[in-house]
Amino acid sequence: MPTYEAISVIPEVFGPYLGASVLGRAQERGVFSFVAHDLRTWTHDRHRTVDDAPFGGGAGMLMKAGPIFEAVESVSAAGSAKPHVIFFSPCGARFDQAAAERLSHEERLLFVCGRYEGMDERAYSLADEVLSVGDYVLTGGELAALAVIDAVVRLLPGALGDDMSAVEESFSDGLLEYAQYTRPATFRGMGTPPVLLSGDHGAVDLWRRRDALLRTAAWRPDLIEPGEVSREEHAWLESHAEDVERLRASGMGTCEDVSPEGEGC
Ligand code: SAH
Predict the structure, then answer these.
(1) Which of 121, 153, 147, 116 is CA-nearest to residue 134?
(2) Is the CB of 61 under 6 A from ligand 1?
(3) What is the mean pLDDT of residues 105-126?
(4) Any idea what the Cα angle at residue 89 is, between residues 83 and 92, rounded to 5°?
(5) pLDDT tens, 175-197?
(6) Pairing of strands 84-94, 129-132
(7) From residue 137, how far is each of 26, 59, 147 by CA, in Å?
(8) Is the distance from the beta carbon of residue 54 to the nearest atom of ligand 1 less than 6 Å?
(9) Which atom of ligand 1 lies at the shortest distance from residue 140's CA?
């Protein structure tokens, strides 16, 4: 079973999230295990100090390299396999679905969470990779670690109730996911594309593929790489430029042209 561990000054924040719902049930079923280590375990002074002022001055405090080195070395030595060590920083490589897929094949992951103004640069020499969860600054790496663990765990066999649901969703085929609807078919005057109610699976599959194409072209055209989409589909998209434009203008989640009579979006 894959083992995930975190080193943090607030190890108590992981339990509530990882213990709830899908992730909690996955842990109970032995799909993965998780342990959070308190970085202060590896301090040696009365105040259990993990931070200090940066050389050269400047605002805030930095995490000292010493406790981080001791923590990573000690946690790594304790397990059977050497962990793949991940640090977090806005300077890191952007975490995405492809990275989640890659990390889902690792048997042991160790997440090292920064706080304050970040870490002494030398601590990063312990990292196998440094990840960023986006172009914004968090107060700590814990939320970043939770995001990565969440995205990785739902790719593990048996993590989701229905094994198919991780296969057909945003990014898995390089496109955003198609729109989905559930009962009632008409809600506050807003309908459902009739094809989804038709029971014609071939027509539903075609509609979904085209809807995924439209949504990706409208909201994330950067995801449509050459080779991802066939010539026929490119031609189809070009002939539906107005739909793409309307979708873009409506913004995510406000698809106005879905009515029982209409063509859908
Ligand atoms: N001074 C640093 C930011 C420190 S934020 C800088 O400007 O680059 C404190 C910690 O939060 C970081 O060490 C990192 O572990 C985490 N963190 C903040 N933003 C993050 C992001 N976008 N992705 C991943 N981790 C982040």
Answers:
(1) 147
(2) no
(3) 98
(4) 80
(5) 999 999 999 999 999 999 999 99
(6) parallel
(7) 30, 15, 14
(8) no
(9) 11
Ligand 1 pocket, mutate which of 89, 113, 115, 131 (most atoms under 8 A from CB): 89
Whether 114 is in the pocket of ligand 1, judged by its Cβ within 6 Å, is: yes
Q: SS3 letters for the chain?
A: CCEEEEEECCHHHHHHHHCCHHHHHHHHCCCCEEEEEEHHHHCCCCCCCCEECCCCCCCCCEECHHHHHHHHHHHHHHCCCCCEEEEEEEEEEECCHHHHHHHCCCCEEEEECCCCCCECHHHHHHCCEEEECCCCCCCCCHHHHHHHHHHHHCCCCCCCCCHHHHCCCCCCCCCCCCCCCCCCCCECCECCCHHHHCCCHHHHHHHHHHHHHHHHHHHCHHHCCCCCCCHHHHHHHHCCHHHHHHHHHHCCCCCCCCCCCCCCC
Residue 22, both tokens: 């899908």
Report how far ligand 1's centroid is from the alpha carbon of 115 (Å): 7
- Whole-structure pTM value: 0.91
Residue 88 in tokens: 């977090």
Domains of the chain: 3-153 (3.40.1280.10), 174-258 (1.10.1270.20)
Q: How far apart are the CA of 76 and the centre of ligand 1, in A? A: 23
What pLDDT, in 10s, does the model give residues 199-251? 999 999 999 999 999 999 999 999 998 788 999 999 999 999 999 999 999 87
